[in-house]
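Usage example:
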Amino acid sequence: QPLLQIRGLRAEIDGKLVLAGVDLDIAAGEVAAIMGPNGSGKSTLAQVLAGRDIYHVTGGSVRYAGMDLLAMPAEERARAGLFLAFQYPVEIPGVSNVYLLKAALNAQRGHQGLPELDAMEFLQKVKALTRELGMDEKFVQRGVNEGFSGGEKKRNEMLQMALLQPRLAILDETDSGLDVDALKAVAQGVNALRAAERAFVLITHYERLLEHIVPDRVHVLWQGRIVTSGGPELARRIEREGYAWLQHGAAEPS
Ligand code: ADP
Ligand code: MG
Ligand code: MG
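Running the assembly step on the lines above writes:
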């Protein structure tokens, strides 16, 4: 029984069909990469799995850890260990990063019936994790996104992830290129957290990230469907040849 089992998933936004029958299995312990050209539905898939309600699921099923994921509200999914890296699109000066991280962790602990961490305990935990992730610990005291570089934003996402210890982490690397520092931050975060009971879904436009995080499986999403799957060599083929070859005999194994 895979950790995540997606069957015939269909979803639309604004009346437009974006996911046209996605079939995908992700096993515990696995790092899966999802690649695909711009507009193929990668971010939509991530958002649908996280339960963002602007997307309308119109068919199919998703089982997660033996549960019917689509029947669960977004907060319950998060509580059940599903993590979608959240990026604040704007700066929130005056709201410190540490404040939001502590709120997120204590909300999760509350749901798990664990006592809240007090400020001291929390700071000790954050300190240890920032060291592990190669972050400056002063960083967490800054305002949310206040003057964060690309690499710092990514380190911050990795810190969220390391704090929350998800069972399934979905990282949607948007199409805007990651600089080298940001790539390293993501790789360091994911590689540090790779574990037998945890799975990652790395959504990425480019192969570059996969030089730093070697995935177990690579899946290509094309016009709302997974059209081919393979090992890391599939990512290298896409880097060399792009996606055009998929148009002819889409499901042909490489
Ligand atoms: P990808 O992440 O692979 O680039 P997306 O999931 O972002 O693809 O988008 C897939 C399709 O859904 C695109 O055609 C896009 O225009 C459409 N789409 C995504 N989000 C929205 C939205 N909020 N409103 C309308 N259309 C959207
Ligand atoms: Mg896009
Ligand atoms: Mg996207």
